[in-house]
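Two proteins, back to back. First:
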Amino acid sequence: MSLISGTADALLEQTLLTVESLNSAGSQRCVITRVTGFLEQFGFSAFGLTRLQRLPGAEPDVLLDAWPEGWAEHYREAGLFRHDPVVQHSLSVRDVFAWDEVPRDYLNDPKAATIPLEAAEFDMREGLCVPLPSALGVGSLWLGSARFERVPGLKRAVRLLAHHVFQAVEALPPTPAGVRALSVREGDVLAWIAGGKTTRDVATILNISEHTVGEHLKNIRRKLGTSNNTHSTVRALQLGLLRL
């Protein structure tokens, strides 16, 4: 039975199975794959996990990056964090909320008002945010979609999932300061390269150009502070960003 047309009990059961599967996830890529498989049933095509320390001027740490290609870079380079109405609302509430439930007062900032339009260009018109406040700061699980199914019990399910995703990531080998999470596509590219494929092979498998593969590998080296593909593979394995 589809979870969309099924019962709340069926949804809870599937959520618990996903949570249990996270216990054996040995890398960020593995966590992303298992969470994505669950979320796709409801129309979510992207998600991210962040943590914001309670320090003046702090920027969020990106713990998992499963956003559409290019969104994380655009978001960071355009300085959208301090204007994002979803971020601002997440700092003042504890319950799961849909993006369209954010009070419109946050949109009085002209830059904030453009963010939903910019996200829509990356096929993220709707979404949920799960605030995870703690003594050290505020973690958040962000779910994005063109349109998601608002089934009964979904908010409860993603709250349960969010806590365990956070725990699964925390259990991975610590990522040194300054090292950023790989995007889903970067993880895909590096996994194929680590498996012995050439850039041409990877381009064919992922249906992208060789130039794009090269750009992903360049971004991976920049994020990991490495000098070549072999070094990137070893470093990603050490950091738990990749599992062969």
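And the second protein:
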Amino acid sequence: MKIFTILWYFLKMFYQLLCCSFSFLTFLFNVFWFMCNLASAGIPWFTVLLVVICVASKFVKLKSPDEKQLLRLLAAGSQGLYPEDLSFWPIAHRGAGYDAPENSKAALKKCITRGYRNVLVDAGLTSCGKIVIVNRLTLEKAGLSGSIALHTLESLKKINIAELHPMGKHFEAEYVLTLKELLDFLEDQRLTVFLYISDNSSQMLECLKTTIKENPLFIQRIILISRSPITVYQ
């Protein structure tokens, strides 16, 4: 008799466990069904919103940072707001590449006008052995594939980089600079250029050595930067 009583309680507990499990599974199914309905109704609108944001980002230009406020943050308790008063100096990436065609004379001139004395520009070597001031992304925007080394100076000189910039309509035509043209521009300017070398080939190094020998201004105004310590050492 005792065995039957224990068996009865066991079956009763098993039945209650099945009922609870079924109720829990039903709850999960209802939650899943609700989320599917919510997703099917919300995803199209979310996708449309993302498309609108992406399209708007191509035409809407964010406000430039306040120059005076930036200089105040960099100043070390000085009275003036000139570069000589700064505790450390900002380096303009690709010139004023945000407000002017990057790696161009217009960008460098804008930096000088704003009082900046340090800029970083990109340099590469063409297939004809000329060092040019341009970034590979600029070539991609112009519809040219591959690295700078795959293109001649003549083909790069045809690119109007002002047309590739969101603010390009406010500038005259700007074309890819050669290193020699950059050095000629620096003769009358108080500007230090950080030259970032993306091409670490032996041909690039030989061209740089030749340029340094022929242009004493190079070691006065240009600081060489590369990811390869060996390149800088050589």
